[in-house]
Protein backbone atom coordinates (compact mmCIF):
# COMPACT_ATOMS: atom_id res chain seq x y z
CA UNK A 1 0.00 0.00 0.00
CA UNK A 2 1.34 3.28 0.67
CA UNK A 3 3.85 5.79 0.00
CA UNK A 4 7.40 7.01 0.68
CA UNK A 5 11.00 8.62 0.87
CA UNK A 6 14.10 10.47 2.65
CA UNK A 7 17.32 9.42 4.51
CA UNK A 8 20.36 7.32 4.75
CA UNK A 9 23.71 6.61 3.23
CA UNK A 10 24.07 2.94 2.36
CA UNK A 11 26.22 0.86 0.14
CA UNK A 12 23.87 -0.59 -2.44
CA UNK A 13 24.19 -2.01 -5.86
CA UNK A 14 22.56 0.69 -7.93
CA UNK A 15 22.20 4.41 -7.74
CA UNK A 16 18.64 5.60 -8.16
CA UNK A 17 16.20 8.30 -7.54
CA UNK A 18 13.07 7.65 -5.62
CA UNK A 19 9.57 6.79 -5.53
CA UNK A 20 5.88 6.92 -4.70
CA UNK A 21 3.92 3.99 -3.20
CA UNK A 22 1.33 4.35 -2.64
CA UNK A 23 3.10 6.59 -4.90
CA UNK A 24 6.70 7.42 -5.42
CA UNK A 25 8.80 10.47 -5.56
CA UNK A 26 12.32 11.62 -6.06
CA UNK A 27 13.83 9.52 -3.36
CA UNK A 28 17.37 8.32 -3.75
CA UNK A 29 18.97 4.93 -3.87
CA UNK A 30 20.34 3.02 -0.96
CA UNK A 31 23.76 3.60 -2.42
CA UNK A 32 23.66 7.04 -3.85
CA UNK A 33 20.86 8.66 -1.92
CA UNK A 34 20.49 11.37 -4.49
CA UNK A 35 17.19 12.77 -3.25
CA UNK A 36 17.43 16.01 -1.33
CA UNK A 37 20.58 17.97 -0.63
CA UNK A 38 23.48 15.53 -0.49
CA UNK A 39 25.50 18.23 1.32
CA UNK A 40 22.84 18.84 3.96
CA UNK A 41 24.15 19.17 7.48
CA UNK A 42 23.64 16.14 9.68
CA UNK A 43 21.04 16.40 12.41
CA UNK A 44 22.44 16.42 15.98
CA UNK A 45 22.98 13.02 17.59
CA UNK A 46 20.40 11.70 20.04
CA UNK A 47 21.69 9.48 22.84
CA UNK A 48 20.18 6.02 22.55
CA UNK A 49 18.85 6.11 26.10
CA UNK A 50 17.05 9.40 25.39
CA UNK A 51 15.65 8.46 21.99
CA UNK A 52 11.91 8.30 21.40
CA UNK A 53 10.47 7.30 18.04
CA UNK A 54 6.99 8.15 16.79
CA UNK A 55 5.35 5.86 14.24
CA UNK A 56 2.14 6.83 12.45
CA UNK A 57 0.20 3.88 10.98
CA UNK A 58 -2.84 3.95 8.71
CA UNK A 59 -4.27 0.70 10.14
CA UNK A 60 -3.56 -1.60 13.07
CA UNK A 61 -0.57 -3.99 12.86
CA UNK A 62 -2.52 -6.39 15.08
CA UNK A 63 -4.43 -7.40 11.93
CA UNK A 64 -1.54 -9.79 11.35
CA UNK A 65 -0.95 -9.24 7.64
CA UNK A 66 -0.67 -6.50 5.05
CA UNK A 67 1.11 -3.18 4.78
CA UNK A 68 0.92 -1.86 8.34
CA UNK A 69 1.78 -5.27 9.77
CA UNK A 70 4.91 -5.42 7.58
CA UNK A 71 5.86 -1.87 8.54
CA UNK A 72 5.53 -2.59 12.22
CA UNK A 73 7.52 -5.80 11.94
CA UNK A 74 10.32 -3.60 10.61
CA UNK A 75 9.98 -1.27 13.60
CA UNK A 76 10.20 -4.27 15.93
CA UNK A 77 13.26 -5.58 14.13
CA UNK A 78 14.94 -2.18 14.45
CA UNK A 79 14.06 -2.03 18.14
CA UNK A 80 15.57 -5.47 18.73
CA UNK A 81 18.68 -4.76 16.64
CA UNK A 82 19.41 -1.53 18.51
CA UNK A 83 18.33 -2.62 21.98
CA UNK A 84 15.58 -0.04 22.50
CA UNK A 85 12.92 -0.29 25.20
CA UNK A 86 9.22 -0.62 24.40
CA UNK A 87 8.66 2.77 26.01
CA UNK A 88 10.88 4.36 23.36
CA UNK A 89 8.46 3.49 20.52
CA UNK A 90 5.29 5.60 20.41
CA UNK A 91 2.74 4.16 17.96
CA UNK A 92 -0.33 5.91 16.64
CA UNK A 93 -2.60 3.46 14.82
CA UNK A 94 -5.65 3.73 12.58
CA UNK A 95 -4.73 7.26 11.51
CA UNK A 96 -6.52 7.79 8.20
CA UNK A 97 -3.96 9.28 5.84
CA UNK A 98 -6.51 11.50 4.11
CA UNK A 99 -7.53 13.11 7.42
CA UNK A 100 -5.07 15.98 7.82
CA UNK A 101 -6.40 16.99 11.24
CA UNK A 102 -6.09 13.45 12.61
CA UNK A 103 -2.59 13.14 11.16
CA UNK A 104 -1.50 16.41 12.76
CA UNK A 105 -2.99 15.41 16.12
CA UNK A 106 -1.21 12.05 16.05
CA UNK A 107 2.14 13.69 15.32
CA UNK A 108 1.60 16.38 17.97
CA UNK A 109 0.89 13.66 20.54
CA UNK A 110 4.18 11.97 19.61
CA UNK A 111 6.02 15.26 20.00
CA UNK A 112 4.40 15.88 23.38
CA UNK A 113 5.78 12.51 24.48
CA UNK A 114 9.26 13.64 23.48
CA UNK A 115 9.78 11.97 20.09
CA UNK A 116 12.80 13.26 18.17
CA UNK A 117 11.88 11.36 14.99
CA UNK A 118 8.53 10.67 13.32
CA UNK A 119 8.10 7.87 10.78
CA UNK A 120 4.96 8.33 8.67
CA UNK A 121 4.23 5.01 7.00
CA UNK A 122 1.50 6.00 4.53
CA UNK A 123 1.64 8.15 1.40
CA UNK A 124 -0.92 10.82 2.16
CA UNK A 125 0.74 11.81 5.44
CA UNK A 126 3.29 13.67 3.32
CA UNK A 127 1.75 17.14 3.20
CA UNK A 128 1.09 17.35 6.94
CA UNK A 129 4.55 15.99 7.66
CA UNK A 130 6.11 18.57 5.34
CA UNK A 131 4.28 21.40 7.12
CA UNK A 132 5.25 20.13 10.54
CA UNK A 133 8.86 19.59 9.50
CA UNK A 134 9.05 23.34 8.95
CA UNK A 135 7.37 24.03 12.29
CA UNK A 136 9.67 21.66 14.20
CA UNK A 137 13.12 21.95 12.58
CA UNK A 138 14.81 20.00 15.39
CA UNK A 139 12.65 16.90 14.76
CA UNK A 140 13.32 14.36 12.00
CA UNK A 141 10.37 13.56 9.74
CA UNK A 142 10.84 10.44 7.60
CA UNK A 143 8.05 9.60 5.17
CA UNK A 144 7.38 6.31 3.41
CA UNK A 145 7.01 6.94 -0.32
CA UNK A 146 5.95 10.37 -1.32
CA UNK A 147 7.98 13.06 -3.01
CA UNK A 148 8.87 15.70 -0.42
CA UNK A 149 12.39 16.24 0.84
CA UNK A 150 13.22 19.62 2.40
CA UNK A 151 16.96 19.00 2.49
CA UNK A 152 17.01 19.63 6.24
CA UNK A 153 14.89 17.40 8.48
CA UNK A 154 12.50 15.53 6.14
CA UNK A 155 13.23 12.69 3.73
CA UNK A 156 11.53 9.80 1.92
CA UNK A 157 12.10 6.06 1.93
CA UNK A 158 10.83 3.32 -0.35
CA UNK A 159 12.13 0.57 -2.59
CA UNK A 160 12.10 -1.34 -5.86
CA UNK A 161 9.11 -3.51 -5.00
CA UNK A 162 8.54 -3.90 -8.73
CA UNK A 163 11.50 -6.30 -8.77
CA UNK A 164 9.68 -8.59 -6.36
CA UNK A 165 6.41 -8.16 -8.23
CA UNK A 166 8.08 -9.40 -11.41
CA UNK A 167 9.04 -12.60 -9.58
CA UNK A 168 5.51 -13.17 -8.28
CA UNK A 169 4.24 -12.66 -11.83
CA UNK A 170 6.27 -15.72 -12.81
CA UNK A 171 4.43 -17.78 -10.21
CA UNK A 172 1.06 -16.52 -11.44
CA UNK A 173 1.88 -17.00 -15.12
CA UNK A 174 2.92 -20.59 -14.57
CA UNK A 175 -0.12 -21.39 -12.43
CA UNK A 176 -3.00 -19.96 -14.44
CA UNK A 177 -5.11 -22.39 -16.41
CA UNK A 178 -7.49 -19.86 -17.93
CA UNK A 179 -4.74 -17.39 -18.95
CA UNK A 180 -6.80 -14.76 -17.12
CA UNK A 181 -5.14 -13.31 -14.03
CA UNK A 182 -6.91 -10.75 -11.85
CA UNK A 183 -5.33 -7.80 -10.05
CA UNK A 184 -7.09 -5.91 -7.24
CA UNK A 185 -5.60 -2.40 -7.36
CA UNK A 186 -5.98 0.27 -4.70
CA UNK A 187 -5.54 3.10 -7.20
CA UNK A 188 -6.01 3.63 -10.91
CA UNK A 189 -3.49 4.08 -13.72
CA UNK A 190 -2.65 7.61 -12.56
CA UNK A 191 -0.88 6.31 -9.46
CA UNK A 192 2.66 5.42 -10.50
CA UNK A 193 3.34 3.15 -7.55
CA UNK A 194 0.35 0.93 -8.22
CA UNK A 195 0.71 1.08 -11.99
CA UNK A 196 4.39 0.20 -11.83
CA UNK A 197 3.55 -2.80 -9.67
CA UNK A 198 0.85 -4.01 -12.05
CA UNK A 199 3.18 -3.59 -15.01
CA UNK A 200 6.10 -5.40 -13.38
CA UNK A 201 3.80 -8.24 -12.35
CA UNK A 202 2.43 -8.47 -15.91
CA UNK A 203 5.92 -8.55 -17.40
CA UNK A 204 6.78 -11.40 -15.05
CA UNK A 205 3.63 -13.23 -16.12
CA UNK A 206 4.41 -12.72 -19.81
CA UNK A 207 8.00 -13.91 -19.40
CA UNK A 208 6.74 -17.44 -18.81
CA UNK A 209 3.26 -17.30 -20.36
CA UNK A 210 2.93 -14.94 -23.34
CA UNK A 211 -0.74 -15.84 -23.80
CA UNK A 212 -1.87 -14.68 -20.34
CA UNK A 213 -3.49 -11.34 -19.63
CA UNK A 214 -3.88 -9.39 -16.39
CA UNK A 215 -7.30 -7.88 -15.64
CA UNK A 216 -7.37 -4.91 -13.25
CA UNK A 217 -10.12 -3.82 -10.86
CA UNK A 218 -9.63 -0.61 -8.86
CA UNK A 219 -11.03 -0.09 -5.34
CA UNK A 220 -9.95 3.52 -4.85
CA UNK A 221 -8.74 2.80 -1.31
CA UNK A 222 -5.51 1.44 0.14
CA UNK A 223 -7.46 -0.49 2.74
CA UNK A 224 -11.10 -1.45 2.23
CA UNK A 225 -11.74 -5.16 2.82
CA UNK A 226 -15.29 -5.01 1.48
CA UNK A 227 -14.25 -3.29 -1.74
CA UNK A 228 -11.32 -5.69 -2.08
CA UNK A 229 -13.66 -8.67 -1.73
CA UNK A 230 -16.03 -7.30 -4.33
CA UNK A 231 -13.19 -6.60 -6.77
CA UNK A 232 -11.68 -10.05 -6.30
CA UNK A 233 -15.05 -11.73 -6.77
CA UNK A 234 -15.74 -9.71 -9.92
CA UNK A 235 -12.42 -10.86 -11.35
CA UNK A 236 -13.16 -14.47 -10.47
CA UNK A 237 -16.56 -14.14 -12.12
CA UNK A 238 -14.75 -12.83 -15.19
CA UNK A 239 -12.82 -16.10 -15.42
CA UNK A 240 -9.61 -15.14 -13.63
CA UNK A 241 -8.10 -18.06 -11.72
CA UNK A 242 -5.20 -16.24 -10.03
CA UNK A 243 -5.78 -13.06 -8.01
CA UNK A 244 -2.93 -10.64 -7.34
CA UNK A 245 -3.23 -7.39 -5.43
CA UNK A 246 -1.92 -3.98 -4.47
CA UNK A 247 -4.11 -3.34 -1.45
CA UNK A 248 -3.63 -3.88 2.24
CA UNK A 249 -5.78 -6.75 3.47
CA UNK A 250 -5.57 -10.49 2.80
CA UNK A 251 -9.21 -10.56 1.66
CA UNK A 252 -8.43 -10.99 -2.07
CA UNK A 253 -6.39 -14.10 -1.23
CA UNK A 254 -9.11 -15.49 1.01
CA UNK A 255 -11.71 -14.82 -1.68
CA UNK A 256 -9.62 -16.64 -4.30
CA UNK A 257 -9.10 -19.62 -2.01
CA UNK A 258 -12.82 -19.81 -1.21
CA UNK A 259 -13.48 -20.12 -4.95
CA UNK A 260 -10.93 -22.90 -5.30
CA UNK A 261 -8.48 -20.60 -7.11
CA UNK A 262 -5.09 -19.13 -6.33
CA UNK A 263 -3.40 -15.82 -5.65
CA UNK A 264 -0.37 -13.64 -5.00
CA UNK A 265 -0.75 -11.38 -1.97
CA UNK A 266 1.18 -8.31 -0.96
CA UNK A 267 3.26 -6.85 1.90
CA UNK A 268 3.41 -10.04 3.97
CA UNK A 269 3.21 -13.81 3.56
CA UNK A 270 -0.53 -14.42 3.17
CA UNK A 271 -0.30 -18.20 3.05
CA UNK A 272 -1.29 -18.00 6.72
CA UNK A 273 -4.68 -16.62 5.68
CA UNK A 274 -5.00 -18.67 2.47
CA UNK A 275 -2.83 -21.79 2.80
CA UNK A 276 -4.50 -23.66 -0.06
CA UNK A 277 -4.52 -20.80 -2.53
CA UNK A 278 -1.68 -18.39 -1.87
CA UNK A 279 1.35 -18.82 -4.12
CA UNK A 280 3.74 -16.10 -2.93
CA UNK A 281 3.76 -12.34 -2.30
CA UNK A 282 6.03 -9.33 -2.80
CA UNK A 283 7.11 -8.41 0.71
CA UNK A 284 9.04 -5.71 2.54
CA UNK A 285 11.79 -6.04 5.11
CA UNK A 286 11.40 -2.54 6.52
CA UNK A 287 13.81 -3.30 9.34
CA UNK A 288 16.66 -2.86 6.83
CA UNK A 289 15.83 0.81 6.52
CA UNK A 290 14.65 1.52 10.05
CA UNK A 291 17.74 -0.01 11.64
CA UNK A 292 20.12 2.02 9.48
CA UNK A 293 18.16 5.26 9.84
CA UNK A 294 17.82 5.09 13.62
CA UNK A 295 21.47 4.11 14.03
CA UNK A 296 22.38 7.21 12.02
CA UNK A 297 20.21 9.32 14.32
CA UNK A 298 22.05 7.91 17.34
CA UNK A 299 25.42 8.49 15.65
CA UNK A 300 24.58 12.02 14.54
CA UNK A 301 25.09 11.19 10.86
CA UNK A 302 21.46 11.36 9.70
CA UNK A 303 20.87 13.77 6.81
CA UNK A 304 17.78 14.47 4.74
CA UNK A 305 18.73 11.93 2.11
CA UNK A 306 16.18 9.75 0.35
CA UNK A 307 16.44 5.97 0.51
CA UNK A 308 15.42 3.50 -2.19
CA UNK A 309 16.22 -0.15 -1.44
CA UNK A 310 16.33 -3.09 -3.82
CA UNK A 311 16.08 -6.86 -4.00
CA UNK A 312 19.86 -7.08 -3.66
CA UNK A 313 19.73 -4.89 -0.54
CA UNK A 314 17.16 -7.12 1.12
CA UNK A 315 14.58 -4.35 1.55
CA UNK A 316 12.23 -6.08 -0.92
CA UNK A 317 11.75 -9.79 -1.48
CA UNK A 318 9.05 -12.41 -2.01
CA UNK A 319 7.56 -14.73 0.57
CA UNK A 320 8.48 -18.43 0.38
CA UNK A 321 6.85 -20.13 -2.59
CA UNK A 322 3.96 -22.37 -1.56
CA UNK A 323 5.25 -25.45 -3.35
CA UNK A 324 2.13 -27.42 -2.45
CA UNK A 325 0.15 -25.05 -4.67
CA UNK A 326 2.60 -23.66 -7.23
CA UNK A 327 3.11 -25.20 -10.67
CA UNK A 328 6.10 -27.54 -11.09
CA UNK A 329 9.27 -25.71 -12.06
CA UNK A 330 8.15 -22.38 -10.62
CA UNK A 331 10.90 -22.12 -8.03
CA UNK A 332 13.58 -22.71 -10.64
CA UNK A 333 12.18 -19.99 -12.90
CA UNK A 334 11.98 -17.54 -10.00
CA UNK A 335 15.51 -18.34 -8.86
CA UNK A 336 16.83 -17.76 -12.38
CA UNK A 337 15.12 -14.40 -12.73
CA UNK A 338 16.14 -13.32 -9.22
CA UNK A 339 19.80 -14.00 -9.95
CA UNK A 340 19.57 -11.96 -13.15
CA UNK A 341 17.85 -9.02 -11.42
CA UNK A 342 20.38 -8.97 -8.59
CA UNK A 343 23.24 -9.18 -11.09
CA UNK A 344 21.75 -6.33 -13.11
CA UNK A 345 21.37 -8.38 -16.29
CA UNK A 346 17.57 -8.39 -16.11
CA UNK A 347 16.08 -4.90 -16.01
CA UNK A 348 12.37 -5.10 -15.30
CA UNK A 349 11.51 -1.99 -17.30
CA UNK A 350 13.96 -2.22 -20.19
CA UNK A 351 12.72 -1.82 -23.77
CA UNK A 352 11.16 -2.59 -26.01
CA UNK A 353 8.01 -1.91 -23.96
CA UNK A 354 4.61 -1.28 -25.48
CA UNK A 355 1.51 0.02 -23.76
CA UNK A 356 -1.76 -1.89 -23.89
CA UNK A 357 -2.85 0.13 -26.92
CA UNK A 358 0.18 -1.03 -28.91
CA UNK A 359 2.24 2.15 -28.68
CA UNK A 360 6.01 1.86 -28.23
CA UNK A 361 6.82 3.56 -24.92
CA UNK A 362 10.38 2.41 -24.23
CA UNK A 363 12.65 1.68 -27.17
CA UNK A 364 14.92 -1.33 -27.41
CA UNK A 365 18.20 -0.61 -25.67
CA UNK A 366 16.57 1.96 -23.39
CA UNK A 367 15.60 1.58 -19.72
CA UNK A 368 13.16 3.55 -17.62
CA UNK A 369 14.73 5.60 -14.84
CA UNK A 370 13.65 5.23 -11.23
CA UNK A 371 12.10 8.69 -11.44
CA UNK A 372 10.02 7.63 -14.45
CA UNK A 373 8.97 4.42 -12.74
CA UNK A 374 8.01 6.04 -9.47
CA UNK A 375 6.61 9.37 -10.63
CA UNK A 376 5.51 9.17 -14.25
CA UNK A 377 4.31 5.62 -14.82
CA UNK A 378 0.73 6.31 -15.87
CA UNK A 379 0.25 3.76 -18.62
CA UNK A 380 -0.31 0.00 -18.60
CA UNK A 381 2.00 -2.36 -20.46
CA UNK A 382 0.82 -4.72 -23.16
CA UNK A 383 -1.10 -7.55 -21.53
CA UNK A 384 -3.02 -5.44 -19.00
CA UNK A 385 -6.79 -5.14 -19.40
CA UNK A 386 -8.33 -2.26 -17.42
CA UNK A 387 -11.89 -3.09 -16.37
The total strand number stands at 16
Estimated structural class: alpha/beta
Q: What does the overall shape look like?
A: globular
Unreliable stretches (pLDDT < 50, length at least 5) are 1-38
Number of helical elements: 10
**Order of SSEs, N→C?**
EHEHEHEEHEHEHEHEEEHEEHEEHE
Could you tell me the strand content as a percent range? 15-25%
Instruction: Kindly state the percentage of residues in helix.
Output: 25-40%
* Strand ordering within the main sheet: 2-1-3-4-5-12
Mean pLDDT: 90
Radius of gyration: 20 Å
Describe what this molecule looks like in 3D.
By secondary structure, the chain is α/β, with parallel strands linked by helices. Helices cover 32% and strands 16% of the residues. It has 10 helices and 16 strands. The chain has helices spanning 67-82, 100-112, 126-135, 161-175, 192-208, 225-237, 251-258, 287-299, 330-343, 370-375, and strands at residues 53-56, 89-92, 117-120, 140-144, 154-159, 180-185, 213-218, 242-246, 262-264, 278-280, 282-284, 307-309, 316-318, 353-354, 360-362, 384-386. The strands form 4 sheets. Strands 2-1-3-4-5-12 form a 6-stranded parallel sheet, with helices on one face. Strands 10-9-8-6-7-16 form a 6-stranded parallel sheet, sandwiched between helices. Strands 11-13 form a two-stranded antiparallel ribbon. Helix 5 (192-208) links the parallel strand 6 and strand 7. Helix 1 (67-82) packs across helix 8 (287-299), helix 4 (161-175) crosses helix 5 (192-208) and helix 6 packs parallel to helix 7 (251-258). The protein is globular and about 55 Å long. Mean pLDDT is 90; it is low at 1-38.
Amino acid sequence: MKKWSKILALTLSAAMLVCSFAACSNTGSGTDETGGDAQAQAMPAVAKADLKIGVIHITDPAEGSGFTYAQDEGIKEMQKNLGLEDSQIIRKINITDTDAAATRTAIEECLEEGCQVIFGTSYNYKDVMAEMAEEYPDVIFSHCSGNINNGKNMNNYFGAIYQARYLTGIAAGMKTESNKIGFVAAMDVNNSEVTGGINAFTLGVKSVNPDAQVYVRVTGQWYDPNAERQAAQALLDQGCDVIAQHCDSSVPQETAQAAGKWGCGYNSDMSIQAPNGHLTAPIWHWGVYYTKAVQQIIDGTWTATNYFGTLADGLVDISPLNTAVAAPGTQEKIDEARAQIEAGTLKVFAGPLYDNAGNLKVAEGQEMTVEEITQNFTWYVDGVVAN
